[in-house]
Amino acid sequence: MFPKTETVLLPTETIVNEGWNFIKLIKDENVYQSIKNSINSINKKKYFKKENVFFEKLHSVFFKLQEMEKQNLIITNEDEVKKLLIRIASIKKLFVNDILSVVRDVYNRPVFTEGDLYLQLFKIYLDNYDKTENEDMIDTFNFTYNPIMPFSRAKIQQGLFIYQV
Known about the structure:
7 helices; 3-stranded mixed β-sheet
């Protein structure tokens, strides 16, 4: 039902409680690594650029952050985020490698994958989403959760949950 190129499976050992928010969820190092690996794997698939799901979703987050920054909607106490937003605002042409190099530079991390890039920008967006009035959530990956089923009857009837950000 969900294209694998747009679906990120949350780790099965994660318990997604009602009321958890996504930022809280990805602060768990295991969850963060799992999501990052899934996004990296999606990005490594050989799609044409116009069909590259990672590329599209990164652009939507990036453009939204640029727009929010212009409207002074982003409030943060983190120096890295402030520095990143200043650099984002200065980028004229948008290429994933340009964004990746800016984020690597700001966070001072030479090894910073596409999954890290998406998650860092997405976290900033989510932190500030409440300040955007009457806006639909940008298009994200479908985050799904497949609970562990300890007995055979449950396995036969097993389903998949969509974790709506």
